[in-house]
From TrEMBL:
Pathway(s) where this gene product acts: Cofactor biosynthesis; biotin biosynthesis; biotin from 7,8-diaminononanoate: step 2/2
Function according to Swiss-Prot or TrEMBL: Catalyzes the conversion of dethiobiotin (DTB) to biotin by the insertion of a sulfur atom into dethiobiotin via a radical-based mechanism.
Domain Radical SAM core: 39-267
Name recorded for this polypeptide: Biotin synthase
Gene that encodes the chain: bioB
Requisite cofactors: [2Fe-2S] cluster; [4Fe-4S] cluster
Native source organism of the sequence: Flavobacterium chuncheonense
Amino-acid positions noted as binding [4Fe-4S] cluster in the UniProt annotation, renumbered to this chain: 54, 58, 61
Length: 361
């Protein structure tokens, strides 16, 4: 068995990415079989618990308040709404619910308390619970862990260099800081990125260097293909070619053999053959449900038909790690600290972000 390395260089990763596709697929599939059952795929359902109105300027995101998109914003969902959706997800084969809120960072207060209650509620349904809420402090990570959180998602998005071409309202180092805060608990880390934003292969490799050098490496790495949404700065980007996706998945599998590589946004653009190549190359997780936060996703019945056709089985929850215990709010050993951390605001100008925010609808 290979041993997991944390010292991959950009040059080594580029060389893997550019291998003849038959060699790349063979190598990735071999690593995949050493570490995982190739016929089992983990299924997550992504719920947007608070949509739109985000103060950040991520160039790919229709939820940023400054861009003129057709997204309908929503206040934070209630715990009972979330519970109903989680039960539906469970009955259609999902083992994990991932709750996303369009926030820059978590603020202590009633809304965070409500999210903690959602975490407790879903964990009690014996499903893995993941949250993606923006930047969090160590204390907030500990409170989420105590509520029964299984995973925290915080994507690096791209290489450190290209990140500056996409987002100007926060720094790459803050992403790493949040991941570090999560690592002070027993919550697993989900962190990946997006391809198709105009980045080079060097940038894709740079992102994989950053992710693979984390020790431990993230337990889950989502690979998204940009869904170019009208009104966002990246609206004119061309769709990602399937072979770029396959190469990215295969390279991720080779440099992070133990992680679950997640096929995320952009699956509606892929046919079954393309997705089958991604599974062969080492993808072993998908998002199910008709929407990924705000962008379209294949229908769950279609996914189940694809699983049947390919002989894939959905992974049961808590196979990789034991179910966390939920501590009720009244027994919590942590308090809301009301911290106001100084997350970075680099504030450099990204022309296309500026133009998109100034455009008339
Ligand atoms: S990706 Fe997240 S942080 Fe960035 S604008 Fe969208 S919701 Fe806000």
């Amino acid at each position: 068995m290979n041993t997991t390395r944390h010292n991959w260089t950009k040059e080594e990763i580029i060389a893997i990415y550019n291998k003849p596709i038959m060699d790349l697929l063979y190598e990735a599939a071999t690593v995949h079989r050493e570490y995982h059952d190739p016929n089992v795929v983990q299924v997550s359902t992504l719920l947007s618990i608070k949509t739109g109105g985000c103060p950040e300027d991520c160039g790919y995101c229709p939820q940023a308040a400054r861009y003129h998109t057709d997204i309908e914003g929503n206040d934070l969902m209630s715990v009972s709404q979330v519970k109903a959706q989680a039960l539906r997800a469970k009955s259609s084969g999902s083992s994990r619910v991932c709750m996303g809120a369009a926030w820059r960072n978590v603020k202590d207060g009633p809304e965070f308390d409500q999210v903690l209650e959602m975490v407790r509620t879903i964990n009690k349904l014996d499903m893995e619970v993941c949250c993606t809420l923006g930047m969090i402090t160590e204390n907030q990570a500990k409170r989420l862990a105590e509520a029964g959180l299984y995973a925290y998602n915080h994507n690096l998005d791209s290489s450190e260099e290209y990140y500056k071409e996409v987002i100007s309202t926060r720094g790459f180092e803050d992403r790493l800081q949040t991941i570090d805060n999560v690592r002070k608990t027993n919550v697993t880390v989900c962190s990946g990125g997006i391809i198709g934003m105009g980045e080079s292969i060097e940038d894709r490799a740079g992102m994989l260097v950053a992710l693979s050098s984390l020790n431990p490496q993230p337990e889950s790495v989502p690979i998204n293909a940009l869904v170019a949404v009208e009104g966002t700065p990246l609206e004119d980007q061309k769709p990602v070619e399937i072979w770029d996706m396959v190469r990215m998945v295969a390279t991720t599998r080779i440099v992070m053999p133990e992680t679950q590589v997640r096929l995320s946004a952009g699956r509606t653009e892929m046919n079954r053959e393309g997705q089958a190549f991604c599974f062969f190359a080492g993808a072993n997780s998908i998002f199910a449900g008709d929407k990924l936060l705000t962008t379209p996703n294949p229908d769950v019945n279609e996914d189940m038909k694809m699983f049947e056709l390919l002989g894939l089985k959905p992974q049961k929850p808590f196979i990789k790690k034991m179910q966390p215990q939920t501590v009720e709010a009244e027994n919590s050993e942590y308090q809301s600290l009301g911290e106001k951390p100084k997350w970075t605001r680099p504030g450099h100008v990204i022309e296309r972000n500026l133009e998109a925010s100034q455009k008339e609808k």
